[in-house]
């Protein structure tokens, strides 16, 4: 199965994004990351900028197991319940899609996700 995920952070962004990439590469060998992109917050009043990135990987694991692994990485970065309401996002890793199943349709149309997916598609084509 091919998984597409979105990664974001607005708190200690550099460190948390690096942690996410490191842990994801350990868990899912062959994972490909788009360029990290800085964006203004969506729906938040806190002016902290976000770092966002899209990644794609293949795994035989079920989606529920992949989601559990993603949430464990978020907890390792220090994410705790209630922080999102305070507009603090240490690390947010969302499963966007798996093969033809879309989990976050609203995220797949965000500009930075569209650009990230285009980058990943271009990289895949150049490897063929």
Automatic annotation (TrEMBL):
Please state the pathway this protein functions in, per its UniProt record: Cofactor biosynthesis; tetrahydrofolate biosynthesis; 2-amino-4-hydroxy-6-hydroxymethyl-7,8-dihydropteridine diphosphate from 7,8-dihydroneopterin triphosphate: step 4/4
Q: Name one Pfam family in it.
A: HPPK
**Boundaries of every 7,8-dihydro-6-hydroxymethylpterin-pyrophosphokinase domain copy:** 5-120
Query: Any transmembrane segments, and where?
Result: none
InterPro entries, A to Z: Hppk, Hppk_sf
Assigned EC number: 2.7.6.3
Q: Which enzyme type, at the first EC level?
A: transferase
Its keywords, alphabetically, are: ATP-binding, Folate biosynthesis, Kinase, Nucleotide-binding, Transferase
* Protein family per UniProt: Belongs to the HPPK family.
Q: What does this protein do?
A: Catalyzes the transfer of pyrophosphate from adenosine triphosphate (ATP) to 6-hydroxymethyl-7,8-dihydropterin, an enzymatic step in folate biosynthesis pathway.
- Can you name this protein? 2-amino-4-hydroxy-6-hydroxymethyldihydropteridine pyrophosphokinase
